[in-house]
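Exercise 7b. Backbone tokens:
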């Protein structure tokens, strides 16, 4: 696969919602971005709070910004807060440095985009992103 399509993004979202239901999670919101950081698709479950679109997109954008999943960003926020603060500054505050932002790679390791999920714990959000990416036969990079 050379790039993420709308149909692929919608499948990722559906599979993420299925994983959230299987885990009995709070309502989640899912953003799928292409490799340039542009939104391909977004969906939120009923009951999601008002900033969830921005948080989900910020997680996905953060993964793209550093070239790995946002678990890496969280670790650096703890050990090098000045770096993550500067990164967020140069991005105009667009990065959310907690797990739940997962890069989407093809089998050759090429970055195709990213998935950002928010709504439950960061670990659960990340698990839903991984499930969505796996459902379309691509590789998840959590960082």
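Sequence design result:
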């Amino acid at each position: 696969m050379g790039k993420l399509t709308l149909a692929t993004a919608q499948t990722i979202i559906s599979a993420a919602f299925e994983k959230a239901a299987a885990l009995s999670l709070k309502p989640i919101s899912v953003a799928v971005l292409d490799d340039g950081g542009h939104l391909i698709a977004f969906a939120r479950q009923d009951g999601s709070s008002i900033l969830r679109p921005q948080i989900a997109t910020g997680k996905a954008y953060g993964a793209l910004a550093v070239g790995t999943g946002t678990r890496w960003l969280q670790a650096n926020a703890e050990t090098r807060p000045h770096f993550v603060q500067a990164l967020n500054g140069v991005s105009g505050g667009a990065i959310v440095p907690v797990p739940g932002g997962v890069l989407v790679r093809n089998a050759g390791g090429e970055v195709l985009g990213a998935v950002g999920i928010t709504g439950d714990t960061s670990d659960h959000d990340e698990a839903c992103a991984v499930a969505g990416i796996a459902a379309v036969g691509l590789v998840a990079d959590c960082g």
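Instructor comment: The mean pLDDT is 97. The chain has one domain: 6-139.
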